[in-house]
Amino acid sequence: MRFWTTIGLLLVLSIVGLTYEIAAGRVLAPFFGTSLITWTAVIASVLAGFSLGNALGGLAAEGDRRAAFLRIRRALVATSVLMALSPAVLAFLHAAGARGTGGMLVTVLAAFFPASVLVSFPTPFLAKLAVEARPGREGSSLGIVLAAGSLGAIFGAIFAGFAALPLLGSAATFSACGAASLLCVPFLKDRGDPEGPCPPPAPGTSGFSAGTRPDLPSRYRRLRATGSAPQITACPAVRLLAECLRAAAAILPARPAAEHVRHRSLSRGGRGRGGHPGQAASGAEQSSGKAQQTAANGRKTGQMALKAARPAPFRVQP
């Protein structure tokens, strides 16, 4: 994924999280009133959900990349459903007899805690993608990630207080939060940029199946597109092999092309006659002797042609 796409997703999810939190305090008022206790319960429950979601998302970000993308997409789909159903869950629990401070705490946890966990679940993995998208600029990338989270919280508070709740109402605001979470799913696409160590080869194989190649991170694809040779650092085994090849190329002297071609021709000639490669030296001596004999025969033939073409000397008859 591209860097600014990841930042945009983080910004949208932060806006959704804060809008959901403020809408939760607003929708709770008709059932349990608006007081310090209700707002404390809402803020504490939602922030606890954010904390747990970030912790679980961090564990998912360390696992397999494709599995992490799949879990995040599922989490966002579940988030959209839970956010849209939060007012219905609140009304159901209140109708079931939830009263007092204890009933209010149970209702808040049941109605708002699960969606808070899931909406913050993608954040660690998106932050990891943003940092990895710009190698060598990890500090600024992390700063932009944190700034996007804070800026999204500001926008979410302003949007909920000045636009969504006054104009749309509580139920429509919850539905809008769910729809925004669902719209993030198409942007979460795995483009084949797995990181981490090389996978172990299957028993009885060479490590790579026919028609496949090990995928490289996106930064190496960009370096390849610009024409520069990428430094493969994703796999320690491949890096070690590359260093060994460089060292061997530096130690071994370069052989001239003519000598290389002559050596190959002599080696092939020896093998073609059924000989062993160890007979290449004797084959070279025989070829050299034949070449010298051919040259000597050519010189003799030339001398004989010159004698035949030379005119006879003029003699005066007495």
Please characterize this protein's 3D structure.
With 318 residues, the protein is mainly alpha-helical. The protein has a domain at 3-187: Growth Hormone, Chain: A (Up-down Bundle). Helix content is 73%, strand content 0%. The longest helix has 31 residues, at 65-95. Mean pLDDT is 77; it is low at 193-199, 205-225, 227-234 and 270-275.
The overall pLDDT average reads 77
> Counting H and I runs of at least 4 residues, what is the number of helices?
11
Which CATH architecture of one domain? Up-down Bundle
Query: Regarding CATH, which class of one domain?
Result: Mainly Alpha
What is the total tally of β strands? 0
Low-confidence stretches: 193-199, 205-225, 227-234, 270-275
Shape descriptor: rod-shaped
Query: First CA to last CA: what distance?
Result: 112 Å
CATH superfamily of one domain: MFS general substrate transporter like domains
Describe this structure in a few short sentences.
This protein is mainly α and about 325 residues long.
Write the layout of secondary structure elements.
Layout: H1 3-32, H2 36-61, H3 65-95, H4 100-119, H5 123-132, H6 138-168, H7 170-183, H8 218-226, H9 236-251, H10 257-272, H11 280-309
Helix pairs in contact: 1-2, 1-3, 1-4, 1-5, 1-6, 1-7, 2-4, 2-5, 3-4, 3-7, 5-6, 6-7
